[in-house]
Every structure is written in structure tokens, then in C-alpha cells.
Amino acid sequence: MSEKIIKRYRRHKRVRSKVIGTAKVPRICVFRSSKHIYAQIIDDEKGRVILSASDSEVKKSNLKKSEIRSTKSETNSKFKIQKVKEKDKKEEKIKTRKVAVAYEVGKLLAEKALKDKIKKVVFDRGGYRYHGRVKAIAEGARDAGLLF
Predict the structure, then answer these.
(1) Facing residues of 124 across strands?
(2) How confident is the model at residue 61 (pLDDT cuts 50, 70, 90)?
(3) 97-115 helix and 133-144 helix, angle to the nearest 10 degrees
(4) Cys bridge to 21: 26, 73, 94, 96, which one at CB 3.0-4.6 A?
């Protein structure tokens, strides 16, 4: 394994020592790869996955093209979030495709959880920094009605 992956596992162990999911308050665990993003709701007492959602379940064609803009910087090849002024002169954040899909994964997971009568969860960021796609999953789940 690469040193980068080993460091993430160490961070994840540190997070997991503090974040524990129970039957009443399960844990949302996030995994992100370079292409995809996955989220699971886990009951740690029984050691089982209750629900899961991934970007393959989200219909990417449903995302409005006005909300998503993927642009490349001339100096940097990474995608950036842009601010675009709309007709009513309000500034809104335009999300890149991966961040917008992650937001939809969070909403989908929350909808599934609310159908299973799960309202409150704890968030496990999986050793990743809380920004970008990981933060988008959390915001999507909160906006859909989960409490954490």
C-alpha cells in the first residue's frame, strides 16, 4: 500500500475511536475514490450495514446543467468552484460535477434512512478532510432531513 493510503487508515482509526454508531443512532461512513463516492449507514453494535448509497444510483442526467459547471484553470488542472451571478444578481456557488453528485448521494441516503425511520445519525468522514465531496454528502443528508 502507498504511504498516502496508510496515513488515511491511521486517521480513520483515530476518528473511529470517537465515533460509534448504535441501533438508535447509526453511523454514516463515507468512502471516496478518485472516480466514485459511496456512503453507508452502519449499526456498529450488530456490525452490519443498514443502508447504502453510491453515485451509480444517482441519475446524473437529473442534475441541472446550470447548477454544474466543470471548468479547468489554466495554471492548475484541478476543477474549481466558480461563483456566477444570476439575473437577480445573487451570487450562488456552482458545484463541480463530482461535488454535485456527492450532494445527491447524501440526499438519496437520507431519503432511504427516513423511510427506515432513522432520523439521527453520527457522521464518520473516513479519514478524509471535511471539505469537497465529503462535506457535500453531509450537507445533502442534512438538507434531506437527517440530524447530526
Answers:
(1) 29
(2) low
(3) 40
(4) 26
What is the rounded average pLDDT of the residues 28-50? Answer: 95
Instruction: Enter the pTM of the model.
Output: 0.77
In sequence order, the β-bridge partners of residue 147 are: 120
The amino acid at 67: E
Say how many domains are in the chain: 1
Residues 122 and 22: their CA atoms lie apart, in Å, by 9
> What residue numbers bound the domain in which 63 lies?
3-144
Q: Distance between CA atoms of 41 and 33, rounded to whole angstroms?
A: 18
The identity of residue 69, as a single letter, is R
- The number of angstroms, rounded, from the C-alpha of 102 to the middle of its chain's C-alpha atoms is 5
d(CA 42, CA 52): 9
Residues 6+ apart with CB under 8 A from 56: 36
Helix, strand, or coil (residue 72) = strand
Looking at residue 48, its pLDDT comes to: 95
Quickly count: other Cβ atoms within 10 Å of residue 94's Cβ.
Answer: 18
Q: Note the pLDDT tens digit of each residue in 88-119.
A: 444 456 678 899 999 999 999 999 999 999 99
